[in-house]
Design a protein that fits this description.
It comes from Actinoallomurus vinaceus. The chain has helices at about 45-55, 75-80, 110-120, 145-155, 185-200, 220-230, 270-280, 280-285, 290-305, 315-325, 335-340, 345-360, and strands at about 5-10, 15-20, 20-25, 30-35, 35, 60-65, 90-95, 125-130, 160-165, 200-205, 230-235, 310-315. By secondary structure, the protein is α/β, with parallel strands linked by helices. The protein starts with 6 loop residues before the first strand and ends with a helix. The structure holds NADP nicotinamide-adenine-dinucleotide phosphate (NAP).
């Protein structure tokens, strides 16, 4: 690559990381957890490792995985990268909270076992970042205090350097004081309650061209995190491939066993048609190839917060190469405003679809 990959100073971690991080969910391959598909089909370990090595060559220093990505397979692949590169050069993030077992995933001893397994899989003696992956802390949040205490013990023992938690896909601080029967109010209040208990260093949030925009009187996750001195990592900037135009509504792909997209409302024929048609103005203005659309999607996400790195999923060296080398110049403020305006109908339709999904 002619220009080195940009870096960002991730608040909460206190060190620079590449502006684009390698999201290692896809490379974990197909998987099910308690009968629910949670992985990605068509993954190949050799090609995935080549992708990781190429990401490192391109300057990627942030790698995000989880115990449930391929039920350990993603961590083990990342371990093969770590066996070849100096540990201190890379930032490794993993997650706990979903892995089905006899105990609750957040039972303290279960968390201990999962961290031990993650470190063994990765071949390292510490994680730079460890996320509370799920927000299910059992009936009445009975496992929450113990899980927080256990996480703090990991940090005190030098096994974990910083703690992360996920933020809701839609959030404004002001919503939390709304009526308790309101779903938005309930979710915002719950996030704040968990946030106060966990006191994370870093939040992870989905943010892409379809994400809602907020009014001048609303404090979104990015502004909230900024006010708290907490870092933000952006995930799913490519809309899991949908924003790259690779899921054409006339050529619907059948997803294999163990691929979460079998059950994802984003991948129904109707939703794919909606997104494809809604992105017509983007294709007209920026071009319709994967690099054209990757540039818009990534530059849009990178523009939201100058300190937030963006994770991209990939399955091989070709995908990560295309994605990273397509970055090009940042979008101008006018271009961002233009995208806000031209994508308003699509954003609204997407928000309505997601609201319906959560309706009782
Ligand atoms: N709760 C959490 O904390 C959480 C949740 C979700 C994700 N994450 C993290 O965020 C990362 C990114 O999210 P994501 O992987 O779900 O979605 P993403 O980055 O938006 O999309 C990744 C998918 O897009 C397709 N793609 C990527 N580059 C491509 C290219 N150059 N050409 C064609 N297709 C391409 C691939 O799927 P196909 O080849 O199958 O089309 C790939 O698996 C994850 O890997 C994970 O590390 C965290």
């Amino acid at each position: 690559m002619s220009t080195p990959l940009e870096t960002r100073h991730l608040r909460g971690l206190g060190r620079p990381v590449s502006a684009i991080g390698a999201g290692c969910w896809t490379i974990g391959g197909p998987a099910t957890n308690q009968g629910v598909p949670i992985g990605w089909d068509r993954a190949d370990s050799g090609r995935a490792l080549a992708g990781l090595l190429h990401a490192h060559e391109l300057g990627v220093t942030l790698y995000d995985t989880a115990d449930v990505y391929g039920l350990g397979h993603s961590e083990r692949l990342l371990g093969r990268l770590l066996s070849r590169v100096p540990r201190h050069e890379v930032v490794i993030s993993s997650k706990v909270g979903y892995f089905a077992s006899a105990a609750h995933p957040y039972a303290a001893e279960q968390m201990g076992r999962q961290l031990e397994r993650a470190l063994a899989n990765l071949g390292t003696d510490y994680l730079d970042l460890y996320f509370f992956h799920s927000t299910d802390f059992g009936e009445g949040d009975q496992y929450l205090p113990g899980a927080v205490k256990q996480m703090r013990a990991f940090v005190e023992h030098g096994l974990v350097r910083a703690v992360g938690m996920r933020a809701p896909h839609t959030f404004a601080l002001e919503w939390a004081t709304g009526p308790s029967h309101d779903r938005r109010a309930h979710e915002a209040a719950r996030f704040l309650r968990l946030y106060e208990e966990i006191r994370p260093d870093v939040l992870i949030v989905r943010y892409n061209l379809l994400s809602p925009l907020y009014g001048p009187d609303e404090t979104d996750v990015f502004d909230f995190a900024d006010s708290q001195g907490v870092g933000v990592i952006i995930k799913q900037a490519l809309g899991q491939g949908v924003l790259l135009g690779t899921h054409h509504p006339d050529r619907i792909r059948a997803f294999g066993h163990g691929d979460h997209r079998r059950q994802d409302p984003m991948f129904t024929p109707k939703a794919l048609r909606e997104v494809y048609d809604g992105l017509a103005s983007v294709r007209e203005r920026y071009g319709a190839t994967v690099p054209d659309l990757a540039r818009v999607a990534l530059r849009y996400a990178l523009a939201r917060d100058p300190e937030a790195p963006v994770l991209v999923g990939f399955r091989d060296a070709e995908q990560i190469n295309t994605t990273i080398t397509s970055l090009g110049e940042p979008l101008t403020a006018d271009e961002i405003t233009g995208l806000h305006q031209s994508l308003a109908p699509l954003r609204d339709a997407f928000a309505a679809r997601m609201a319906k999904r959560h309706a009782p």
